[in-house]
Amino acid sequence: MSVFDKVSSLQHLLQDANTTIPDSITYGEIFNSLQHLSQTDPESLSSKLNLLEKLWASWYIFINNDILATGLLFFLTHEFMYFGRCLPWFIIDQIPYFNRWKLQPTKIPSNKEQWECFKAVLKSHLLVEALPIWLFHPLCSTLNISIDVPFPAWQTMLAQISFFFFCEDMWHYWFHRLFHWGWFYKNIHKVHHKYAAPFGFAAEYAHPAEVMALGIGTVGFPVLYAFLATKYSSLPTLHLFTITIWICLRLLQAVDSHSGYDFPWSLNKFVPFWAGAEHHDLHHHYFIGNYASSFRWFDYCLGTESGPAHKDKREREQRLRAERKTQ
Ligand SMILES: [Zn+2]
Ligand SMILES: [Zn+2]
Asked: Euclidean distance between the first and final Cα of the chain, in Å?
């Protein structure tokens, strides 16, 4: 399909059943037509779709322009997931009961501080991230990233998302470490470190250059994977729904790691290599160490764990090494 084709590539779902699509049809009417088809025609493709796949297909048929549909989907997913996840943290900050699980309990962000941060992040979303989001569908078409239904098997999606998590964490570790180096810190990363005790909204509060550099770790690996899948047929192709789920999970990870709260039921209590807020809060508190985003293994293996206990351990080891050299 041409990148500039204005017709949704999913319209065949309705057209195959000789359903005429009036110009003024609503999203709900399209979804109901697909539901009706799946109940009345067991041969139709619609009958083989689950609820989520029907919602997805209805969106592309409704917008009737795949570039616009993907752009809008990504923009809205980003805004709803990011601010939607920040909101519960903002509410928790207002309730003193939760203070017992705050990692830096004496530093509750003020509403004014959160409001200023919210406005800055929203502005950055509109200015910095809007254009790449709109250009994503043409890239998807070039790399055979599918928007079709049904979706791939969940095992395929799980394997691909796990790969993206691992690669993003590695990318984040090295770029974040670089951003703590002299010129890069002073001119770029210092913006993100405005808050020594972070809160949800602060996750994407950063210099535009940092947003772009770290954003590549999130979007670049799906693009690289899709490119490799066009070269090696043994690799399962990538679906846009898989990328959407990956971006949602990555946003949840980023906001939660800045929440400032570590609960007994936080994920890092059950998955010991998961970084969580406890890991990233120490980074904001001490300005050094804990550079990775999702996992603890890079900081552990490369000796860059943050906090006084790890600092003491590193200094002890350094002293021992120096003593051994002089003996
Ligand atoms: Zn940092
Ligand atoms: Zn941070």
From this structure: 72
CA 220 to chain centre: 12
Beta-carbon contacts of residue 259 (< 8 Å; ≥ 6 apart): 89, 92, 198, 199, 200, 277
- How far is ligand 2, taken at its centre, from the CA of residue 312, in Å? 23
User: Counting ligands in written order, which one lies closest to the CA of residue 180?
Assistant: 1
Distance 190 CA to ligand 2 centre (A): 11
Ligand 2 centroid from CA 137, angstroms:
29
Q: How many domains does the chain have?
A: 2
Identify the CA nearest to 108 among candidates 82, 90, 88, 84: 90
Contact 258, 165 (CB under 8 A): no
Ligand found nearest the CA of 206: 2
Q: How far is the CA of 83 from the centre of ligand 2 (A)?
A: 16
What span, in angstroms and rounded, lies between the C-alpha atoms of 118 and 141? 34
Has residue 235 been placed in a domain?
yes
Count the neighbouring beta carbons within 10 Å of the beta carbon of residue 33.
20
Q: Is residue 323, in this structure, part of any structural domain at all? A: no
What average pLDDT does the segment 19-33 reach?
79
pLDDT in tens, 69-128: 999 999 999 999 999 999 999 999 999 999 999 999 888 889 999 999 999 999 988 887
Ligand nearest to the CA of 204: 2
User: 253 C-alpha vs ligand 2 centroid, how far in Å?
Assistant: 11
Residue pair 172/293 in contact (Cβ under 8 Å)? The answer is: yes
Q: What does pTM read for this prediction?
A: 0.90
Same domain, 107 and 60: no
Give the distance (Å) from ligand 1 centre to CA of residue 291.
7
Q: 161 alpha carbon to ligand 2 midpoint, in Å?
A: 22
Return phi, psi of residue 83, to 5°.
-75, -30
- Domain of residue 53, residue span: 1-64
